[in-house]
Backbone:
């Protein structure tokens, strides 16, 4: 057990974002806005077949446009050193692996020139038969690589078939979630500059991890990482899609190498983002439960089939939540992938947990009805004493507290448990509940450096990222607390590979990983230089190893409540009220934390009602690949959303007692909305999104 640092006042204050003023006045530089006098602009040409080979690229017409500097094709693009990862082997061969892949690019004096010229490039293909539809008969599925998945794809405990046969109450349903796209406000952008004399590559990049992008780019182009610098002070959202480099980084680097000494600016369009920066793959999830009449689960089976890409494996671990959530002596989870000729899926806020908990928490609601039990009571009866997967004790499992507190806040007890019981005018009205969870994880490899600048002022340096979550503010608070000084005495530096290394802003691990490095560095400064360090004193420390990670099951939990209204005539679904209570350790900044939780809940509501990438099986493209037709909620779709948390600190997670809050808000929220829609209408929809037609008989 590590001791919780004593609060010096800074932690727990609802500080406004330090960079807020700069952002709203337009002076916070985003990657694409980094000022250069004489930049070049890049615009790509994307494949229009889903599988095949490029036969020829006719650039003659494009080259006649004034201001066009160069055209990159598979024939003339600079060669990469490592082409093992197909996502990054940009323009290295003529193979087309999905529709929307880079097949050529224009470098020009202006963005409009580049775009116009790109439109004039003619590409001839040899098209091969493609498969983009996961439900097509005969498509094969396989077990993913455990290393890609991050965990074992299959688990089994106890006598599953025997327990299913012996159960008094059985649930057996299949749930489906569609392809979903991250769509941060700021598109993926990068500026690449190659300086030939010094052999230095610089990227101004919109990313969740400067060191991650540097590592990939250095490897792909065969440069010593020391020769690659990645800078990213402000990011306009990512939701995971900026959690790694993608092909556009490599294309920008190729263009920069073809134009040494001149920075090349590259901003993806919204439509480009539907094939090049990842997405949540579609899932088919069969859940089987066997329970006693009193609701106690004897067996839980979660079998998942999901889309992956032939270009590169990505395994969404949707069934993993069923390893942890509830007690059942027999249990099985499996994951199978259908590798298709589609773009490469990647992280989208709470990968695995977001789609998985939609299925599990809807199934729990179905079980509650089957046992005629209140859904909160059902969950309380299935509380596991230890983590069912590992047998480890919980560092703190407060799921039932969240459910009970939330029920009180929401007015759950006034509810008539019968579905289709409440009608107000033209609207059926219902309420629903679902659990939430997220691992409390800390990533290794971050280092913080603290320098005393004199007069009690400190510079704190770490290559962390603020993708819009509040890192600038929260890390400053953590540093001030650890140094025992005021916020105004701390100058934080993040978002640059010239700073000490930092793990990716992903897996809700940022605050824990970087924050504990900052705390460790502050302690070392005191150890090495005393309580009153001389000007110029500096110390470095890394994220400490936490032995409790092997001794405890470290999880956050939460409870979602939703009120849903479904129009009796049109099937229109509205969500006037959402309420969430979370157990997420100590809160560093209530203002930014609430914003993360509320944002996650809204994204879950969006997952429930709006988001669906529709793929045309004939051509393999996303038909609704823009914000006009790929629906995300606007303010008019969002009702009252409340998020609160239990007062706690988990000393087993880190010295701060704090866990991340970036993802747990989305986990389970779609199920709460879908369960409320069932309660309103009596219609159980097991396939997202809950479009109006599903409520019209
Ligand atoms: Mo988050 S989807 O782990 O960047």
Residues:
């Amino acid at each position: 057990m590590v001791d919780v640092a004593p609060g010096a006042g800074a932690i727990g204050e609802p500080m406004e974002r330090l960079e807020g003023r700069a952002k709203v006045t337009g002076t916070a530089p985003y990657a694409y806005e980094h000022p250069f006098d004489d930049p070049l602009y890049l615009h790509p040409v994307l494949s229009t077949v889903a599988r095949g080979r490029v036969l020829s690229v006719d650039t003659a017409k494009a080259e006649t446009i004034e201001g066009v500097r160069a055209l990159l094709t598979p024939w003339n693009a600079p060669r990469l050193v490592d082409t093992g990862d197909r996502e990054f082997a940009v323009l290295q061969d003529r193979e087309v692996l999905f529709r929307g892949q880079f097949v050529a690019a224009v470098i020009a004096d202006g963005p409009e020139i580049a775009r116009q010229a790109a439109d004039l490039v003619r590409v001839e293909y040899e098209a091969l038969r493609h498969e983009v539809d996961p439900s097509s008969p005969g498509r094969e599925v396989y077990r993913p690589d455990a290393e890609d998945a991050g965990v074992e794809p299959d688990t089994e405990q106890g006598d599953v078939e025997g327990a299913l046969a012996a159960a008094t109450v059985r649930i057996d349903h299949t749930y489906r979630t569609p392809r979903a796209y991250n769509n941060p406000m700021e598109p993926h952008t990068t500026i690449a500059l190659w300086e030939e004399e010094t052999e230095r590559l610089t990227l101004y990049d919109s990313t969740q991890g400067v060191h991650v992008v540097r590592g990939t780019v250095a490897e792909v182009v065969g440069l010593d990482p020391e020769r690659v610098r990645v800078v990213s002070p402000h990011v306009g959202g990512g939701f995971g899609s900026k959690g790694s480099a993608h092909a556009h980084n490599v294309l920008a680097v190729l263009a920069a190498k073809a134009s040494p000494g001149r920075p090349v600016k590259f901003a993806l369009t919204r439509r480009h983002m539907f094939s090049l920066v990842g997405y949540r793959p579609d899932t088919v999830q069969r859940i089987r439960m066997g329970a006693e009449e009193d609701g106690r689960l004897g067996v839980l089976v979660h079998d998942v089939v999901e889309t992956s890409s032939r270009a590169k494996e990505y395994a969404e671990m949707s069934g993993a939540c069923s390893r942890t959530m509830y007690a059942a002596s027999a249990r099985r989870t499996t994951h199978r992938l259908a590798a298709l000729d589609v773009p490469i899926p990647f992280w989208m806020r709470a990968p695995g947990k977001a789609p998985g908990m939609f299925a599990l928490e809807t199934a729990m609601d179905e079980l509650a009805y089957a046992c005629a039990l209140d859904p909160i009571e059902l969950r309380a009866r299935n509380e596991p004493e230890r983590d069912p997967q590992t047998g480890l004790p919980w560092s703190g499992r407060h799921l039932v507290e969240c459910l009970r507190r939330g029920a009180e806040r929401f007015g759950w007890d006034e509810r008539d448990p019968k579905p289709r019981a409440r009608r107000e005018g033209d609207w059926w009205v219902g309420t629903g509940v679902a659990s939430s969870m997220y691992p409390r994880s800390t990533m290794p490899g971050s280092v913080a450096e603290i320098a005393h600048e004199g007069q009690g002022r400190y510079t704190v340096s770490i290559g962390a990222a603020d993708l819009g979550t509040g890192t600038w503010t929260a890390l400053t608070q953590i540093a001030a607390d650890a140094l025992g000084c005021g916020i105004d005495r701390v100058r934080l530096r993040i978002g640059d590979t010239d700073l000490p290394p930092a793990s990716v802003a992903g897996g809700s691990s940022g605050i824990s990983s970087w924050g504990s490095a900052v705390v460790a560095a502050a302690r070392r400064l005191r150890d090495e230089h005393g309580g009153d360090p001389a000007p110029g004193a500096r110390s470095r420390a890394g994220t400490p190893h936490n032995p409790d990670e092997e001794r405890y099951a470290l999880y956050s939990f939460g409870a979602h409540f939703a009120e849903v209204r479904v129009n009796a005539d049109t099937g229109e679904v509205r969500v006037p009220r959402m309420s969430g209570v979370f157990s997420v350790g100590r809160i560093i900044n209530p203002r930014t934390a609430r914003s993360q939780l509320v944002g996650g809940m809204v994204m879950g509501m969006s997952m429930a009602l709006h988001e669906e990438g529709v793929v045309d099986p004939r051509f393999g493209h996303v038909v609704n690949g823009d914000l006009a037709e790929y629906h995300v909620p606007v303010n008019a779709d969002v009702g009252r959303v409340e998020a609160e948390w239990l007062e706690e600190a988990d000393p087993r997670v880190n010295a701060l007692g704090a866990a991340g809050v970036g993802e747990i808000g989305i986990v389970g929220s779609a199920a709460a909305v879908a369960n409320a829609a069932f309660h309103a209408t009596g219609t159980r929809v097991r396939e997202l999104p809950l479009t109006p037609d599903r409520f019209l008989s």
About this structure: The domain at 146-180+279-441+551-695 is CATH 3.30.365.10 (Aldehyde Oxidoreductase; domain 4). The mean pLDDT is 96. The radius of gyration is 26 Å. Residues 128 and 228 are 38 Å apart (CA to CA).
